[in-house]
């Protein structure tokens, strides 16, 4: 696992497709939205675990349905989805390259045991 600078273009693109306004200022990414994010059909240019998690988390509270195509399939994606489901999210397809998220108004609390680190 390489640690260091990593591109965030897929994260930014996914959030913009959900309706966020993204600005890069002084080395920081600033995101904002009027009201709620909106569900979208997102086809990722390349597979990315981090971007899949970012989009999945954001889409959980978006208005409408979000479909992520070419999503990462790693166990951490399944684990993140299962955690969000524990909190009240509506997610299906985790573990495949097509994840469907039905946005909800709010998430609640919960107890969840995360997957152990594979490294």
TrEMBL record:
Its UniProt entry gives the catalysed reaction(s) as: phosphoenolpyruvate + UDP-N-acetyl-alpha-D-glucosamine = UDP-N-acetyl-3-O-(1-carboxyvinyl)-alpha-D-glucosamine + phosphate
Please provide the record's keywords in A-Z order: Cell cycle, Cell division, Cell shape, Cell wall biogenesis/degradation, Cytoplasm, Peptidoglycan synthesis, Transferase
Q: Gene3D superfamilies this protein is in?
A: Enolpyruvate transferase domain
User: What biological process terms from GO does the record include?
Assistant: cell division; cell wall organization; peptidoglycan biosynthetic process; regulation of cell shape
Could you tell me one molecular function GO term of this UniProt entry? UDP-N-acetylglucosamine 1-carboxyvinyltransferase activity
Q: Which GO terms describe its cellular component?
A: cytoplasm
Record's keyword annotation contains Cytoplasm: yes
Quote any Pfam family the record assigns: EPSP_synthase
Residues in Enolpyruvate transferase domain copies: 1-119
The record's comment on protein family reads: Belongs to the EPSP synthase family. MurA subfamily.
The protein here is known as UDP-N-acetylglucosamine 1-carboxyvinyltransferase
Organism, scientific name: Escherichia marmotae
């Amino acid at each position: 696992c390489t640690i260091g600078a990593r591109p965030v273009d897929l994260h930014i693109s996914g959030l913009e497709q959900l309706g966020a306004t993204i600005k890069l200022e002084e080395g920081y990414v600033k995101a904002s939205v009027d009201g709620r994010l909106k569900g979208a059909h997102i086809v990722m240019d390349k597979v990315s675990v981090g971007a899949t998690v970012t989009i999945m988390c954001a889409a959980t509270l978006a208005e409408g349905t979000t479909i992520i195509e070419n999503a990462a399939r790693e166990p951490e994606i399944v684990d993140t989805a299962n955690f969000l489901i524990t909190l009240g999210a509506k997610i299906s397809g985790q573990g495949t390259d097509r994840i469907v998220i039905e946005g909800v108004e709010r998430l609640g609390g919960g107890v969840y045991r995360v997957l152990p680190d594979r490294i």
